[in-house]
Amino acid sequence: MGCVLEVDVDGEEVFLVDKVMDGCFLFLPLSCCFLLLILTTYLAVFFQLPSFSPLLLNFYCEFQWKDVAIFHLSEDILAPFCGRINNLAGGERLGGAGRRTRRVVLRGFPGGAEAFELIARFCYTGGGGGAVTASNACALRCAAQFMDMATAEVSTAPSLVKMTEKAIEEMPQWPWQSVVDAAKQCQRLLPLADSTGVFDKVVSALLSHMAVPGDATPTSSSPESSAFRFSCDTKSSCLSMRCTSRTWWFEDLVVLSPGMTERVAKALLAKGTDDVVVSRFLFYYLKCRIAGASADDKKAMLEAAITVMADLDRSSVSCKGLFGILRISSPLKLAGACHDSLVAMIGHKLDHATLDNLLVPAPAGTSSLYDVTLVLRFLDAFLHGGGAHGEPEPPRLKKVATLMDLYLAEVAPDPSLHPTKFVDITTALPAAARDCHDALYRAIDVYFQVHTRLTDAEKMKICKGINYEKLSPECCKHLARNTSFPTRAAVQALASQHTVLKSLLRGGSSGQHLKPVSPPDPATGKPRDDGDLGGGGGQVVLYARRLDLSLENQNLRSLVDGMHWRVMELEKVCSRMKTQMTKMKAARRAAAGGRATARSLPRMCS
To answer: Superkingdom, according to UniProt (predicted)?
Structure first.
């Protein structure tokens, strides 16, 4: 007699599967099997039926409490179909009256106890029991691979592997909902779904259905369909996007796990699906699944979405959506690679951002109000990936410069903002990014007023970001009288304004601001074309585009007056210091009894 197998499939409650004398099947709950076992045992003992021994052996079942059931099957029946069972005994099975029990625990069995029941049914009927349907084809194919049924000893019986593969090949003809159910099933069958090719077949079937226009799909044929609810149901926050012919399938696939969603999205890209459609699906997936999810689930969803979005075209990803992901992911501590990808994507679209997007709170444990380091990373990604040659185009650069001026005005009042970070922001963009530096000057002025303990050296480092030639006369006048700025900065501003005025008066390097013009021809009334003015008989006419020289002279006079006033103040301070030092020197000489000191005080002012 063969070996009895106690098969425990993940400790799940299962049904007893065995063969009766007439060859039919009996599928009974455990309680019925227990009563039937007692009855058959009593009959065999009372009537002493030796021919009933095989039935007793195959029908033996151990009843356990706590709803845990175990299959008791014959190894002789399973081994010819299952290579895994055959290998447990090393290809050797007992014969005659030999009898022993072997316990087999199958952990991670694909499809669970239900799939194993179908496998046992198939074996006990010699390959003729159990139908392969759309609901069990994927699980049976993976279960057959798990049990190594491709190397079956029985060559004449039907092959379960071939039966399931034939059903899976016909998956594109299945109804859409059956394909979606198969996709849900596949996420519980990995990695066997990969090694058997089931996952690729499911994705191909999904794509074949997605290629059908929305009005021809089963889901959009009635008001009760998911496509109709997708555009018309106002009660759900997940159904706010408008349904189109290319996105009718969004709602049906949001039930997939994060890992499965990532794989499906990548497969869609590999098949040539539009990046915009994939991007919209990922944002829709997050919108529907994030609410109410646990922290670990949120993290998995965000990482899956970011991984796929990193491979999409920049123009297909919404800047607003990326900042939404950043806001949600801040407390979740994403993987380093995913966070870097998110920062890079936001940096590439920084010219589409708003001031509210950049005002990200600083991480916990820091004293600053805003995460300035994160904005610096955005700027770095923007500057090193903005254009075809690694530099952003001038229009985009100017938009980011305007945004940075607004950001500086917001973060400048922060008393905990370190000077080095403020310098990094003010000097991050190239000189060509700003046509006017008035906004930058005002932000620096606010920073100096809040941070009163800065030294002149630190202030001069911050002022390096200002191009004084791009300051308006009003700002230059304000800077000359602004005691928060170092005197050296005011002198540089004044010198720059003189340089600008001289270049305007001299026509500049290009000669476009000022030029000599010969007197008009009396006959024609038009200026002469020759450059020779004829020995002083000509007239030089100077003009400046949009330049009022009287106003400029007035502004320069105001600047000079302001500088003169500051110099006078410095002279007064120096005179007071000189007087104090003279008194200190006289007091020392008097204390020393009139003896000359070995060292004299340095002469500070003349």
So the answer is: Eukaryota
By the 10 Å C-beta count (0-12 exposed, 13-18 middle, 19+ buried), 271 is classed as middle
For 269-313, the pLDDT digits (tens) are 988 889 999 999 999 999 999 988 999 999 999 999 999 999 999
The SS3 assignment for 598 reads coil
Neighbours of 375 (CB within 10 A): 26
Token code pair at residue 577: 């210091």
The residue with tokens 């809040």 is 450
Among the ranges given (104-108, 182-186, 397-401, 441-445), the one the predictor scored with the smallest mean pLDDT: 104-108
What is the residue type of 454? L
Over the stretch 531-581, which tens digit does the pLDDT of each residue have? Answer: 444 444 444 444 444 445 455 566 666 677 777 777 777 878 888 888 888
Cis peptide before 419 (omega within 30 of 0): no
Three-state DSSP class for residue 18: strand
DSSP string, 443-502: HHHHHHHH-TT--HHHHHHHHTT--GGGS-HHHHHHHHT-TTS-HHHHHHHHHHHHHHHH
143's CB contacts (< 8 A; 6+ apart) are 109, 110, 111, 115, 116, 118, 119
Contacts of 379 (CB under 8 A, 6+ apart): 347, 350, 400, 404, 425, 428, 429
For range 588-599, the mean pLDDT: 63
Q: What local confidence, expressed as pLDDT, does residue 158 receive?
A: 77
- Please give the helix or strand (H or E) that residue 5 lies within, else none: strand 4-9
pLDDT digits (tens, 9 = 90+) for 466-496: 998 899 888 888 888 888 998 888 888 888 7
412-453, pLDDT tens digit by residue?
999 999 999 999 999 999 988 999 999 999 999 999 999 999
Q: 134-149 burial string, b = 16+ CB within 10 Å, else e? A: bebbbbbbbbbbbbbb
The torsion angles phi and psi of 235, rounded to 5 degrees, stand at: -80, -25
Amino acid at 97: A
- Strand 71-74 to strand 101-106: parallel, antiparallel, or no bridges (unpaired)? unpaired
User: Tokens 């059908």, residue?
Assistant: 212
Let me know: does 559 contact 471? Beta carbons within 8 Å.
no
Alpha helices in 249-387 (DSSP H): 250-253, 258-270, 275-289, 295-309, 319-329, 336-348, 355-358, 372-383
Q: Based on the number of CB atoms within 10 Å of its own CB, is 526 exposed (0-12), middle (13-18) or buried (19 or more)? A: exposed
How far apart are the C-alpha atoms of 360 and 399, rounded to whole Å? 20
Burial 484-511 (b: 16+ CB within 10 A, else e): bbbeebbebbbebbeebbeebeeeeeee
Q: How far is CA 40 from the centre of its chain?
A: 65
